[in-house]
From TrEMBL:
The keyword RNA-binding applies. Keywords: Hydrolase, RNA-binding, tRNA-binding. InterPro entries: Pept_tRNA_hydro, Pept_tRNA_hydro_sf. This is Putative peptidyl-tRNA hydrolase. Gene3D superfamilies: Peptidyl-tRNA hydrolase. It comes from the Eukaryota. One of its GO terms (molecular function) is tRNA binding.
Length: 117
């Protein structure tokens, strides 16, 4: 059972709109990233836990692709396993891009709606 959401809600006392959830995404190739606002958990237990504990799906989510293994029985080992040496080499630029995406979004949010030209 995944209990990330309960602990996060308890520790920080934030509303869903104040939360950035970064999680792995089986249905995206390794390294592919997408920032999304709201939506369903799409089968991700950690996202489901956060949505449930915050009573909202309004948090921003950065989904980071880890790729899906070819055999369905290998999913758990793939998700919980370590990156291969070749995959580890891809991590520094991937993490830099993830940080840039999040910081850009935070800056955009902090500026609020535009007041005109």
């Amino acid at each position: 059972m995944n209990v990330n959401g309960h602990r996060a809600a308890e520790l920080f006392g934030l509303t869903a709109e104040e939360v950035y959830l970064v999680h792995d995404e089986l249905d995206k190739p390794l390294g592919k990233q997408a920032l999304k606002l709201g939506g369903s958990a799409r089968g991700h237990n950690g996202a489901r836990s956060c949505i449930s504990c915050l009573n909202s799906n309004a948090m921003a989510r950065l989904r980071v692709g880890i790729g899906r293994p070819t055999h369905p029985d290998a999913v758990q080992a793939h998700v919980l396993g370590r990156f291969s040496p070749a995959e580890q080499e891809l991590l520094p630029p991937l993490l830099e891009r993830a940080a840039d995406l999040l910081l850009d979004h935070i800056c955009e949010r902090s500026q609020g709606p535009s007041l005109g030209p």
